[in-house]
Amino acid sequence: MIDGLSLPKDELLEMQRRMLRIRLFDERASKMVKRGYIPGTVHTSIGQEAQVVGACMALAKGDHMTGNHRSHGHPIGMGSPLGPLMAELVGKATGVCKGKGGSLHLADYEVGSLGESGITGSSIPIAVGASLSAQVLGEKRVAITFFGDGTANQGVLYESMNLASAYKLPVIFLCENNFYALSTPSHTVTGGRIVDRASGFGMPGVRVENGQDVIAVYNAVREAADRARRGEGPSLVEVMTYRFREHSEGLRINVDYRNAEEKALWTSRDPIILFRDLLIEKGIATADEMDAIDAEIEQEVEDCATFALESPDPDVSVAFEHLYTDDYKLENVL
Amino acid sequence: MSVMTYIGAIGAAQQEAMSADERVIIIGEDVEANVYGTTGGGKQRAEKGDFVEQFGQNRIRNTPISEEAIVGTAIGAAMTGLRPIVDLSYSSFLYMAMDQFVNQAAKNRYMFGGQSSIPVVFRSAMFYGLNTGAHHSDRPYPMFMNVPGLKIMAPATASDAKGLLRSAIDSDDPVLTFEAVPLWGQKEEVPDEEYHIPFGVARTHREGSDITIVGISGSLPLALQAADEMEARGVSCEVIDPRTLVPMDTDTIVRSVLKTGRLVIAEPAHRTCGAAAEIAAIVADKAQHALVAPIKRVCALDMQVPFSPVLEREIYPTKERIVAAIEAVCADQLNQVNRRAS
Lengths: 334, 342
Ligand SMILES: Cc1ncc(C[n+]2csc(CCOP(=O)(O)OP(=O)(O)O)c2C)c(N)n1
Ligand SMILES: [Mg+2]
Hints:
Order of helices and strands of chain B: EHEHEHEHHEHEHEEEEHEEHEHEHHH
Number of domains of chain A: 1
Largest sheet of chain B: 7 strands, mixed
Cofactor (chain B): thiamine diphosphate
Oligomer: heterodimer
InterPro entries (chain B): THDP-binding, Transketo_C/PFOR_II, Transketolase-like_Pyr-bd, Transketolase_C
CATH topology of the largest domain in chain B: Rossmann fold
CATH superfamily of the largest domain in chain B: Thiamin diphosphate (ThDP)-binding fold, Pyr/PP domains
CATH class of chain A: Alpha Beta
Radius of gyration of chain B: 20 Å
CATH class of the largest domain in chain B: Alpha Beta
Pfam families (chain B): Transket_pyr, Transketolase_C
CATH architecture of chain A: 3-Layer(aba) Sandwich
Mean pLDDT of chain A: 97
Order of helices and strands of chain A: HHEHHEHEHEEEHEHEHHH
CATH architecture of the largest domain in chain B: 3-Layer(aba) Sandwich
Largest sheet of chain A: 6 strands, parallel
CATH superfamily of chain A: Thiamin diphosphate (ThDP)-binding fold, Pyr/PP domains
Number of strands of chain B: 14
Strand order of the largest sheet of chain B: 3-2-4-5-7-6-12
CATH topology of chain A: Rossmann fold
Distance between the termini of chain B: 46 Å
Number of domains of chain B: 2
Strand content of chain A: 5-15%
Number of helices of chain B: 13
Distance between the termini of chain A: 59 Å
GO molecular function (chain B): oxidoreductase activity
Helix content of chain A: 40-55%
Bound molecules: thiamine diphosphate, magnesium ion
Domain Transketolase-like pyrimidine-binding (chain B): 4-186
Structural class of chain A: alpha/beta
């Protein structure tokens, strides 16, 4: 079993970079929603950075990923550049999806990000399909799909887990358990533990109790990925984590469904601070080095916002493209 | 040319496509044992031409009864290098996978700004008129016509089924096929060499000058029978099958109505919001000045399918109902013929 802490220093620093990118990108996105630069709403991954980055860093180039409505962290975790992602949130021509997807539907095929999904659960079998193509074509890649604890109660997950297990497909089902499905405490609508459902499908299930520890997440997902790559089939990884902000930006819920104590406990477990401290404590990096990374990512996020805001709007003709691969003629185009 | 059945033509197209391209796979319930007769040389697995023997279990796979996962998995596989054919057997089972058809297959290419292409074919057959009761008899293609991003074929003859299915498999977009089980045994001359029929090109089965009859899927042979009967009574009928419903060759239909001035549309789906309704609206829009009579639709009644054969017969288009519709809009011709006769 590989221990993430023994990875080369540059990879460990890259983990911190990606977590910071997610944090600062989402903080900026939140501000831009408030100021009206980003139409619609966004769901941030603030607080869940370790869960996302630990998983993505455990993958290899050529692997595939599908995500969900908490949608910015996943492509950033896979290494997607920030500019086109932010431009997509703003709805610009330079957006990674040409301004046609928006926050909920980010995808960056360059880094194996096959698409986030506004419909919960909907992208789970898509990742299974990416693993089927790997198996049929004899390619050594794996696929991962991210879904929440609320989504873990959708039937499509279990059809997908069964199919993947029966075919021994190289796919990882990663449950981001942040204890809530929007305002609903998970335990009130969920029978048993999510991780225990793995055994019913004949696949390993592991629960990462401290999902704020990027190395713990990395180790669990790395083992699942190695296993998948060896042809030994799928795994379920449940990561316990917490979102620091409201379900989505701008959403006001009057009922206090998460108490202050719980929030304080979890926000004291900030994955970015924890990892920074760990790297310094282990003598892997100095405080100065970590400060420099903070500054570097702050600049990157500043630049991505500038890029997004200064980019041109999409040409209206783009709205009529990409419905089909051929030049299908729409009836009654404006 | 050789004579082939409709279902044989579908099997032949799959066989050719599997041989031509290693990326083509077939997944579905019971495909390995050739239960539905399109993945083998004949009904029996042991017969020569068995797909599992020819192409191996890596490319022909039984699936669990998990329509949502099967459809989603095929979409994901298509987005990452395969060209799957999914055999969903009964069209009534498509509902189980509605989210995957509507939110993934139809939207991914568009939402992601053209990053993905989704070369996948979802085959299903409409088992109507066969006393299978309300849960197995649906003709749901109009629901999917309402989902931009999907392509839809509904062939009515063996040669069309073969050529269109080859085009569907070679297409880089998701295609749904709606096969008509009542036509499975129908025979037609089919070219021996491999061929493709493009989507969006209607087939004019017979030319005529008094009325245009559009026949879709299992209603096409009935439309042709009705045309024969009316021809004998002095009404010259043009019969057109659009063959693909998305994209649909409305130009051919509109051109025909500009010539005939009359239109009857027959299809096995429900009348409300059906393909016939769409064709009627387009013709009303583009050929209104040529119309000399109201457009008539002969569709399945807007009701559920009863089990008893005596009851089920009542709800779909029949030759008699098509004839009655033609009579209603061709009163002039029929009167003239009657006057000449008397
Ligand atoms: C099929 C479907 N049902 C409901 C919703 C509305 N919805 C969006 S996110 C969400 C909660 C999801 O909870 P969870 O899966 O735990 O993810 P989290 O938001 O906690 O990350 C709901 C109910 C949806 N988008 N799709
Ligand atoms: Mg949750």
